[in-house]
Target: Spheroidene monooxygenase
Amino acid sequence: MSIFSYHLIELPFFEAVRRIFSSPIAKDTKGLIHSEYMTAMTLGSPIFSTSRVLIGQVAVFMQWENENALESYLEQDSFGRTLAKGWHVRLSFVREWGKFSGFKLPNDKDQLEGPNSPVVTVTIARMKPLAVPRFIHWGRPVEKLVRDHPGTTLSLASVKFPNTVSTFSIWKSEKEMTDMVHGHSKVEKPKRHSNAMQERERKDFHFEFTTLRFKPLAEFGEWKGQSNFILKN
Model:
């Protein structure tokens, strides 16, 4: 059964820079369907700030033919062993909106136990360069909404130059996540996400874009001294 994994690791600055240009994950890795190696960003931070792009913090989003392939990679591959020292969550695919090349979404979709079950969401897109200023205008308020939302236990953005952008968030419940999407959250300016989606439908920011929803299967390691993001209430 195909599974996904999302990894976070802190690397020394110059090693992180080197790996941005060296493609540390081989495309012919056994059992690997697709991977995206990205640099983490702080959601909602000012565009021109040291907290915007965090060079030493790496996010890797991967799809595997099965969990055994992921286990073998983390144990036997040199970069896999590096990732194993960080934090990661294993994910079962639930549903998608949009399309993004590389990943092969399974026909057999998992199901959450109910609306109060924890859920993980990943968005990933290839940006249209001329749309970047408009995307930032509409996107940063959404970043702040997700970052500050009481329903998230972990949230961040990531980027791969020149034009790949992504977000990752763990939600305490599917209901809290869907309420945010539709503008029903009991927070300040709750319609920031729904307004941005209307603008995207009016004139797309991206060459390709998808939102993926997952059931979290298992969590490993620590991120910034914390763990059990799936289990937090």
Notes: The helical segments are 13-22, 67-76, 78-84, 132-148, 174-181, 192-202. The domain at 3-220 is CATH 3.30.70.100 (Alpha-Beta Plaits). The radius of gyration is 17 Å. Residues 109 and 221 are 27 Å apart (CA to CA).
